[in-house]
Write a structure and sequence with these properties.
Blueprint lengths: L2 H17 L2 E3 L3 E10 L4 E9 L4 E9 L7 E3 L4 E5 L6 E6 L4 E6 L9 E3 L6 E4 L3 E12 L5 E3 L1 H25 L1
Antiparallel strand pairs: 1-12, 2-3, 2-11, 3-4, 4-5, 6-7, 7-8, 8-10, 9-11, 10-11
Helix pairs in contact: 1-2
Length: 176
């Protein structure tokens, strides 16, 4: 085997190994954690979104009564809209378009993990006349191990491993 053939085999093997990267299952379900408002109340719940395609499959976010009445935002009484107040934000707006809750993040929620809520861009409001600002909290994915190998990449890895073994055997034969 020539050095040129050896380099070609090594190149194909390297490309195959690099192509075998994990992908994240989408959509991802997130839990609100420690979300507090400036009136001492809180929000709890979860939402399931695919940040890449800007779609949602479920949400249920409940707020406590304080400056504003309590409200349970669900698909039955509200809609979820992306990028309302920045590229890494979404708003849930009730059907009457009176109550809004907005959550902003410093980065997209495109991979499982824990992300702090950006308090400067997160609030709950009634006709946006009465506000209560989010003062703290985060979101946590319910499935932090949602990484799965891409099946088509695995098909590429097996021949690459075989080629590496073949190249090694040929190299030993040439050295002998």
């Amino acid at each position: 085997m020539t050095k040129q053939m050896l380099r070609a085999f090594m190149g194909v093997a390297l490309i195959s190994v690099l192509a075998a990267r994990p992908v994240h299952a989408s959509p991802i379900t997130w839990n609100l954690s420690g979300v507090t408002f400036d009136d001492g109340t809180s929000a709890t719940g979860s939402f399931t979104i695919d940040w890449t395609s800007k779609t949602w499959t479920a949400f249920d976010v409940a707020t406590q009564a304080g400056k504003l009445p309590a409200l349970d935002y669900t698909p039955g009484n509200s809609g979820l809209y992306f990028n309302g107040y920045g590229p890494n934000s979404f708003s849930i707006i009730d059907s009457a378009a009176h109550r809004y809750i907005t959550f902003a993040f410093d980065q997209p929620l495109s991979a499982p993990g824990v992300y702090a809520i950006n308090t400067a861009g997160s609030w709950d409001c009634n006709n946006c006349g009465t506000f209560r600002m989010v003062t703290g909290g985060s979101v946590t994915s319910l499935s932090p191990s949602a990484s799965v190998p891409e099946p088509s990449s695995l098909v590429l890895v097996l021949p690459a491993i075989g080629m590496l073994g073949l190249v090694r055997r040929k190299r030993k034969q040439l050295e002998s």
